[in-house]
Amino acid sequence: MIENPISSVSTQIEDINFYDLQMNRRKIDKFENIATFLKVEKEFYSESIQGFRRVATRKAFFRAKELKATIRTTAALAPAFNVYSKPYEYLIKLREIQIIPATDYYKLFTEIKFQILNSHGCEVSGGERSEYRLLQQINDSQNYDMLLIDEPESSFDNVFLLNKVNTLIKDISQVLPVILVTHNSTVGASIKPNYIIYTQKNIINGKATFETFTGFPADKHLVGLSGSSIENRVIQMNTLEAGEYSYLDRGKAYENLKN
Question: What is the rounded distance in angstroms from the CA atom of residue 232 to the CA atom of residue 243?
Answer without folding.
Answer: 13
